[in-house]
């Protein structure tokens, strides 16, 4: 990465952190959900409205072998990097789940629009 504006590897923008612990993933799984063509979104308002937006990613073996799962997760990370700093809410956890045979090959710009749409739906449910 060249230039002073380049984000650090693994960063998702200002105010967006990674979910790292299994209990946080499980809480998101029991909260709000919204499916899209390219992935599923789980969203959990933590109740600490001042905390950072957090995001996690998962792809099961249904998505494919390790190469396919890693490609799908890379695409999900980039979608989150583009959309969540503006559309995500502080104090919320989001988990993006890859879909078999779709996430790795679906149109990237459409996936960004799908995430914006899904965020609007889960925020309206809250």
Automatic annotation (TrEMBL):
<dbReference type="InterPro" id="IPR014721">
    <property type="entry name" value="Ribsml_uS5_D2-typ_fold_subgr"/>
</dbReference>
<dbReference type="InterPro" id="IPR020568">
    <property type="entry name" value="Ribosomal_Su5_D2-typ_SF"/>
</dbReference>
<comment type="subunit">
    <text>Consists of a catalytic RNA component (M1 or rnpB) and a protein subunit.</text>
</comment>
<keyword id="KW-0255">Endonuclease</keyword>
<dbReference type="GO" id="GO:0004526">
    <property type="term" value="F:ribonuclease P activity"/>
</dbReference>
<keyword id="KW-0540">Nuclease</keyword>
<comment type="similarity">
    <text>Belongs to the RnpA family.</text>
</comment>
<protein>
    <recommendedName>
        <fullName>Ribonuclease P protein component</fullName>
        <ecNumber>3.1.26.5</ecNumber>
    </recommendedName>
</protein>
<keyword id="KW-0378">Hydrolase</keyword>
<keyword id="KW-0694">RNA-binding</keyword>
<keyword id="KW-0819">tRNA processing</keyword>
<dbReference type="Pfam" id="PF00825">
    <property type="entry name" value="Ribonuclease_P"/>
</dbReference>
<comment type="function">
    <text>RNaseP catalyzes the removal of the 5'-leader sequence from pre-tRNA to produce the mature 5'-terminus. It can also cleave other RNA substrates such as 4.5S RNA. The protein component plays an auxiliary but essential role in vivo by binding to the 5'-leader sequence and broadening the substrate specificity of the ribozyme.</text>
</comment>
<dbReference type="InterPro" id="IPR000100">
    <property type="entry name" value="RNase_P"/>
</dbReference>
<dbReference type="InterPro" id="IPR020539">
    <property type="entry name" value="RNase_P_CS"/>
</dbReference>
């Amino acid at each position: 990465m060249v230039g002073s504006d380049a984000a650090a590897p693994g960063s998702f923008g200002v105010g967006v952190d990674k979910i790292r612990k299994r209990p946080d993933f499980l809480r998101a799984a029991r909260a709000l959900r919204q499916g899209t063509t390219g992935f599923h979104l789980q969203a959990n308002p933590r109740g600490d409205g001042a905390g950072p937006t957090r995001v996690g990613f998962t792809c099961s073996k249904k998505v494919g072998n390790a190469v396919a799962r890693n490609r799908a997760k890379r695409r999900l990370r980039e979608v989150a990097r583009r959309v969540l700093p503006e559309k995500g809410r502080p104090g919320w956890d989001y988990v993006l789940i890859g879909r078999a045979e779709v996430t790795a090959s679906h149109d990237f710009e459409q996936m960004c629009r799908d995430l914006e749409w899904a965020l609007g739906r889960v925020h309206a449910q809250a």
